[in-house]
Write a structure and sequence with these properties.
495 residues, 14 helices, globular
Length: 495
């Protein structure tokens, strides 16, 4: 009997009465649905929107957490392992390019402070590759990162732009040609941190879950109440009933409830009387097109102190010379009253009304142009030629929940209450798959499913995801981008 045959027997032995309800079809909820449904569990996913994986902007995996100097080494190691796991599980969602970290002269940090952590991560990556060669998804571990002094960058600035970068130096050439070298401390650092396509992840989720006979995707269903039963839960949801041209109420009983409601996670906690402390932060990234851009760019991170006028600037490339911009200042990505906390009375932090309106109703053209222009100027101080970049559509925006009280937390996944309630609160998309694994363990612990085989490769655990057509993913992803009002280039692979 092959491992796959044995696994299928185990899946078929799982009781069909094991019904799991997932509230929220964002990255966390969709990933949990894919993982659980491929394990043979009956899943009902409630999503108030018309498609999966909306919400806060995601653009990279945070492989090693190198964008964040303030987090612990342990969080960085966790994010590295989780990112490698996600790339193996979802190979079509990656935008393959490295990331450059540059420290401006006015910044209080030093590039040399980053090197011990990078060496630790490089060794951890090498260990993971030695353990399983399939973990070689971030390139050769020996080239996990490379440092560049000013003299060598000046040399690279004289080299021709490669149309198809093959080496680390190739990727660094457009940076060397365009950044203001006088403005930085040295060395600059290039690290193997690739991008993540929100739209291709959304398409992967939709295509794989639609192919699962044991998954019920309920789009346009807004959960209005959750009631605890003697065993399990009753979920009530409103939906638009075309037959009567009015709202109707649907009710579903489940044995296990996963709260993956994103920034509204606290609302579900309040309903089920399971209080939890958390933060919610509204953030936005801005979409631009830089027609004068030459060459294929890596992502570039210009370090800076969060919340100050010189907060971190982030230049994230997409196909067709589109760039997504972050500026971690109150005038660009952050908002003066955009960070809120839960209270003793409610687990749900309350955003100001004008921000909830932006989530539900969108932005005005003036707001879009004003903040995008600020983002362009923020990058322009380091890349002078970027002044010609123009606004290319509405921002990618949303509210993000962070469990606890530490806004710098990055590696978070899931918490449990009782025997049938899980609270999925990831901060970074790379944590979603490990969080789903923890839920499976909890289902096993409470005898809701029989134990699944241990230590299976992701490729075996997710055969439907792995078998999806690249072409189908790309076509749906571009359609989703257009449907949501974004350039289709944000969904294209970078090649």
């Amino acid at each position: 009997m092959t491992q796959q045959d044995f696994r299928q027997q185990i899946i078929e032995s799982i009781s069909p009465s094991c019904r799991v309800g997932i509230i929220g079809g964002g990255v966390a909820g969709s990933t949990a649905a894919m993982r659980l449904s491929e394990a043979g569990i009956v899943v009902t996913l409630f999503e108030s929107g018309t498609s999966l994986v909306n919400g806060p902007p995601i653009c990279h995996l945070h492989a090693g957490g190198n964008l964040y100097r303030e987090i612990s080494n342990q969080q960085c190691l966790t994010l590295l392992a989780q990112s490698i796991d996600m790339l193996r599980a979802f190979p079509n969602v990656a935008n393959v390019r490295p990331t450059v970290i540059a420290v401006p002269k006015q910044d209080s940090g030093s590039p040399s402070d980053l090197l011990p952590r990078l060496m630790l991560l490089q060794q951890a990556y090498q260990d993971l590759v030695t353990e399983d060669p399939r973990n070689t998804v971030l390139g050769n571990p020996a080239e996990y990162f490379k440092t560049y002094d000013r003299a060598y960058l000046e040399h690279l600035a004289l080299q021709p732009l490669p149309s198809d970068p093959q080496t680390l130096d190739d990727w660094m050439i457009p940076v060397a040609k365009n950044v203001s070298l006088d403005r930085f401390q040295y060395p600059m650092i290039l690290v193997q941190e690739c991008g993540l396509s929100l739209f291709r992840f959304a398409a992967t989720s939709a295509l794989s879950l639609s192919a699962q006979p044991n998954t019920n995707l309920l789009f346009g269903h807004r959960v209005t109440k959750v009631i605890s039963l003697e065993k399990g839960w009753l979920i009530q949801a409103q939906y638009w009933n075309e037959a009567i041209s009015d709202w109707s109420l649907a009710e579903y009983e489940v044995d296990y409830l996963i709260n993956a409601a994103g920034y509204q996670t606290g609302t579900i906690d309040d309903w089920v009387k399971q209080p939890q402390t958390r933060l919610v932060e509204f953030k936005a990234a801005y979409v631009t097109q830089w027609l004068e851009c030459e060459g294929r760019w890596p992502e570039v991170i210009f370090h800076g102190e969060r919340g100050t006028p010189q907060g971190m600037a982030q230049l994230t490339p997409y196909a067709d010379n589109y760039f997504q911009l972050h500026g971690m200042t109150q005038e660009i990505t952050l908002f003066n009253d955009g960070l809120v906390r839960s209270t003793e009375k409610s687990s749900q932090p309350a955003l100001p009304e004008y921000l909830t309106k932006r989530i539900s109703q969108g932005w005005s053209e003036d707001e879009i142009n004003e903040r995008t222009t600020r983002a362009v100027h923020h990058v322009e101080q380091y890349v002078p030629n970027f002044h010609s970049a123009t606004c290319a559509g509405k921002p990618l925006f949303g509210a993000q929940q962070v469990p606890g009280n530490d806004i710098s937390l990055r590696a978070a996944n899931v918490s449990f209450s009782g025997s049938d309630y899980a609270r999925l609160e990831i901060v970074k998309a790379s944590s979603a798959l490990s969080a789903a694994d923890e839920i499976l363990k909890d289902l096993e612990h409470h005898s809701l499913i029989v134990p699944l085989p241990d230590n299976e490769p992701r490729e075996v655990q997710l055969p439907i995801v792995q078998g999806l057509s690249c072409h189908d993913i790309y076509v749906m992803a571009q359609a989703l981008a257009i449907e949501r009002g974004y350039p289709e280039s944000l969904a294209k692979p970078m090649s």
